[in-house]
Structures are given as C-alpha cells and as structure tokens.
Inverse folding.
C-alpha cells in the first residue's frame, strides 16, 4: 500500500527536458507566438529615456523552452556558446516583403531556419533565428 501511495505521489513530479538544438548550419523548426518587442539601441543600448534609439522587432515567444549547444559541426562562430532554458528568440531574415512581420504578429507560427548566437548590441536575445520559412496555425 505504501508503495502504491508513493507512486501516485511522485508520478506527477516528472518533468520534460528542454529540446536540445544546435547552431547553424543545422536547420531547426521552432513554434510559438510572434510579438514585437522594443529595446534601447544606439548609442548606449541601455535606456531610451536617456536618449538611446528605439529598436523594435519581431521575437518568437517559444511554446516550450529550448537549450542551444555548441557542437563540432556548427559553423565557425567564436561567439557561439551553450545557452540553456531559452524562452524567447529574436527573428531575423524572413520573406522579401518588408512587412513580413505584420503578417505574423500575434499569431502562432512555426519558423524554420538556422540559429546563431548574438554578436552585436542590436541582438537582444542570446540566440537568434535566421528565418527561412514561416507557417501559421489556426
């Protein structure tokens, strides 16, 4: 009886591990909601109130957190490092249409592309996706 009670008590405590993905040239597919986020830009990348430019762009709020690890097959990127428990990814690239992000903002999408690590002050998440294909969900 004690064994049965302990099994019922501890069974709900199991956790799913984050998906483990790799940087480019690996192609990945991520799912989530596209949101426009605003961050301070040049010159200091710290405070819009203090005079920094406003940088707005599309971000994918992931359905499930991911881990991105460096592997020997990743493109040579001295900046790449393992990042864990990511919940938001900045989106770069996309359709040739200048307003592609307007088509997807607020929608649940599946984005296929390649991941790369942040390399400049214009990158506002540790990992970004260079988007190649979008698909919306109802």
């Amino acid at each position: 009886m004690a064994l049965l009670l302990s099994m019922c008590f501890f069974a709900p405590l199991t956790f799913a591990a984050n998906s483990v993905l790799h940087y480019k040239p690996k192609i990945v597919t991520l799912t989530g909601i596209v949101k426009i986020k605003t961050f301070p830009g040049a010159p200091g990348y710290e405070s819009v109130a203090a005079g920094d430019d406003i940088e707005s762009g599309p971000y994918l709020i992931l359905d499930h957190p991911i881990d991105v690890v460096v592997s020997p097959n990743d493109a040579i990127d001295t900046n790449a490092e393992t990042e864990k428990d990511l919940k938001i990814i900045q989106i770069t690239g996309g359709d040739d249409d200048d307003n592609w992000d307007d088509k997807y903002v607020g929608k649940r999408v599946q984005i296929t592309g390649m991941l790369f690590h942040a390399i400049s002050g214009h990158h506002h998440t540790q990992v970004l996706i260079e988007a190649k294909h979008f698909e919306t969900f109802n």
In short: Residues 44 and 52 are 6 Å apart (CA to CA). Residues 3-7 have pLDDT under 50 and may be disordered. The beta strands are 19-22, 28-40, 54-69, 83-93, 108-117, 127-136. The chain has one domain: 15-136.
